[in-house]
Amino acid sequence: MSSPQPRRKSVALTFRGFAVSVEELVALAGATPSRFGSLGEPVKLGVQTRLNRSYVIFSKEFESGFELNSMIPALLAELGGTDRICQLRDQVRPEFLEIHFDLPVMTADESQDGWLQETTIADAFRLGASLSFAYF
Fold first, then answer.
1. Are 29 and 45 in contact (CB under 8 A)?
2. Which one of 56, 95, 109, 117 is most buried, by most CB atoms within 10 A?
3. Whole-prediction pTM
């Protein structure tokens, strides 16, 4: 029996409730999503509850020492940059975008803190994305 993979520090950009199919959004993005689901599909295997919205999540993992401030720019660059993502957003018209941090605070050997540079916050604002944080 294999042990589960430990969670890693990551940041993700999620598109939810958009005007095209999941496959079209992925093709337009030109990137491989970490997770996705289509409107009406089961929330997860074996569950009768259905998704109310389609979603596509693009995420990037980082080593524990990677600075919080550099995570969003690294993900946006991997997806083609803020201008490209704005074009994609305008094409697929998502109900909302979210930038989500998954941070190892409780399991870290030392305390981790961080900050977001003004230009990083401006990029999130330009995308119209909310910011969320989860700590493990």
1. no
2. 56
3. 0.90
